[in-house]
Amino acid sequence: MLFQIYGDNAGWQLLGWLLVFAGLVLVNELARRTKKGGIFCLMVIPAALTVYFIAIYAGAANGAEWALNNPTYVHMNSWFHYAKLYAATAGCIGFMMIKYKWKFGKADWFKVFPFIIVAVNILIAVASDFESGIKGAMALAEYGDRWWLSSENVWLYGGWWNWVNGIAGILNILCMTGWWGIYASKDRKDMLWPDMTWCFIIAYDLWNFEYTYNNLPTHAWYCGLALLLAPTFANALWNKGGWIQNRANTLALWCMFAQVFPMFQDTSRFATIPVLYADGFMDAATRPASANPVMQGVVALLALGANVICLAVIIKRSKQQKKNPYKNEIFTDQKDYQLAIARAEK
Fold first, then answer.
1. Number of independent structural domains in the chain
2. Residues in Cβ contact with 141 at an 8 Å cutoff, skipping those fewer than 6 apart
3. CB proximity list for 337: less than 8 A, separation 6 or greater
4. Residue 204 domain-assigned?
5. pLDDT tens for residues 144-191?
6. In a domain, 3, yes or no
7. Residue 1: inside a domain, yes or no?
8. Considering the entire predicted model, what is its pTM?
């Protein structure tokens, strides 16, 4: 088992997961199906939140109690959360520029933007994984265990799994093929990347889940499982080729929610922790006495293995087809690709 879901609270934890999953699927549909919905969800709301965040930090700098005690300021102050929120939002806006052909979104050179922004998002997470690995090693030298307390008062357990998963993330960047194979759908609801088929999606989902499991353990039940499965679910059933747009939309929207309402994951009846916390709880004031990092290691190896296999398949296909896998699409024989390209505006 990956998470501690049992006892009287299990029903609430499962309900919370279903609410997050269904909510992300539905809000993504609102953002992708209409131009007004996309502008409101991915431009207006982030702009308003930026004003809110600036007000909180300005208030805190001046010693205002309302700001110093604000949940966003107390629980979501890591550099990672802000970097992820704005990188994901930048991706969403860029994808809208492509599908609606706004300004240079119609230019051929801009087709490489999706690769760049996804690579940046992956590298942000890789840096965070490596940071945890380093701080875990420092804690081992100082305290005899690998526990270190983050700026958000969450005990993290850094070890070799962080390094393995960080390497998997770097390989995952190399698994993105057909950089210029980017299209707007005929109905203008989606930006499509047809060559990003199930091969990449599985490798990405395993890597990113392990990232959240390592570095956002108290949130991974939601930002790991629910958040990753929502875009994968949509891509599998009705939005072929639109996975990366689904992923960016749901990631940005979730980051906005989590940044403003962190207590949903942290202290409410919906809070869920992984088996890592062998003491059965996570309390910033109490250094954990024991740890169960087995699943961190297992999933890290699975993530690395999936990305190695995916990259090996890409290399084999590129040699067989005598194509550069980044300038050209190489999964054109797969059903996923064919269903996606049929939706594309040429």
1. 1
2. none
3. 194, 195, 197, 241, 329, 331
4. yes
5. 999 999 988 999 999 999 999 999 999 999 999 999 999 999 999 999
6. no
7. no
8. 0.94
pLDDT for 81 = 85
- Cβ-contact 219, 258 below 8 angstroms: yes
Query: What would the pLDDT profile of 321-331 be if each residue is shown by its tens digit?
Result: 999 999 999 99
CA distance 162 to 139: 14
5 falls within a domain: no
Domain that holds residue 54: 10-341
